[in-house]
């Protein structure tokens, strides 16, 4: 006889779950014992939200489900991480040790309706009602998490079921007898519908392709690259989603965002067909409407689940298909499509990108050469460019914050044009949640221990989630944290200054925080930078230290183009 917690761990062991993130609690002890017996590594975190972000980061990088295990009171702390995973469709499995099933509704110890709370931000939220069915519930949750358009799921395990005893082989005589992690079912395109899409692309002269989450989760980025390279189609990335291809693919233009990457506006206005694969026509894409998507073009949306298809009702043409299957089918008819587009179409995009990068750097140099910028004052775009230029090819980058995030997005496109090829670029998703940068950087370093991992974080973002840095010290993971320290919530204060009649900001300032000394106190490396000339040497020193490190950089807050657009009534932005 074994406890219910052991059955839970055993069921996840069958699914080849490799990592569990938790803040250990009494309600979860039987499960922790089970994971220990099954030799599944458990990482103890200083906070439940951090456990959720680490599970999310690990899942996004590996594209394999990971568990976040919390107690009933800790569930509330993990909700922001659940929301973030939901926004990026990350198949994290959230497990709550909950109050007793026997006394449900009677005011049991730490009793909350966690199932109802999780339901709006998960694909599946359910309470285990019978210990003999634990294996069944796990199987269902796991399959829902990874199928179609993936996403987080939630299982609530009542404490009386968690602690009760059951036969070790309970339910193993029921089908399916083996509950291992089988290949995920894929939607294949209907031949007639696919022929129609091919015909539209064939008639196009100036197509572009916008790639989103679905391409990443279906592990189809190499097929995307092959398709675009074979046909010479420019590729754009959905805003807020991690980069799909590196700078070694010249077809990868940048963000499909007219503010953070201005040439995309020209692309939208001059193309005659947009193929969006694995993306959603949500607020970031202006719901598929003008002026972002002019009426003159044909809009095709290819999605791997019916749920996504329903969200993309504004498209002219819809195709239900796994992104990888779609690219595979189009590559079979590449001879039909090859040579159909304007011969200079891709080259025009490459020239537009080069011109934009040159103008961006020229404008930056012009602005920071003024008298008002003398004395070592650092522009956040200068900081991001210098940090990325210092990083070696194959390194991993995370950015976190408001304007820090947006300036870093611009910098990433600048250094890509210059030939820098970073292995990974990660950041908060569509909810713009602050404070997950350190957790993502730790996740990257755990998975790629031999590579350099750098985080560029706003000071507000670090204050939101910086406690997770303790895990970097605990696990001996030398990540590098660059703090863009402008002394406040710059993204918000800039909006206030444009909105408030007084032209001032309110309730957004911080004191002068010595972030670098905080790292030194924990046993790491810390350095304060107040002059741009010292940025690159400081980053190199942090990398060479072999310790978790912080470079605390004093910058001047500068409103980013996207924040300027969204706070200016005269300029309707693409996210309104």
Structure description:
This protein has 576 residues and is α/β, with parallel strands linked by helices. It folds into three domains: 2-166, 3-Layer(aba) Sandwich (Rossmann fold), CATH 3.40.50; 191-350, 3-Layer(aba) Sandwich (Rossmann fold), CATH 3.40.50; 373-566, Thiamin diphosphate (ThDP)-binding fold, Pyr/PP domains (Rossmann fold, 3-Layer(aba) Sandwich). Helices cover 42% and strands 15% of the residues. Helix 10 packs parallel to helix 13. It is globular, with a radius of gyration of 25 Å.
What's the Cα radius of gyration?
25 Å
CATH homologous superfamily caption of the largest domain: Thiamin diphosphate (ThDP)-binding fold, Pyr/PP domains
Q: Got a strand count?
A: 20
Whole-number total of structural domains? 3
CATH class of the largest domain: Alpha Beta
Helix content: 40-55%
Distance between the termini: 58 Å
Overall mean pLDDT:
91
Q: What fraction of the residues are assigned to beta strands by DSSP? A: 15-25%
Coarse structural class: alpha/beta
Biggest sheet features? 6 strands, parallel
Shape: globular
What is the CATH topology of the largest domain?
A: Rossmann fold
How many separate helices?
24
Strand neighbour order, sheet with most strands:
3-2-4-5-7-6
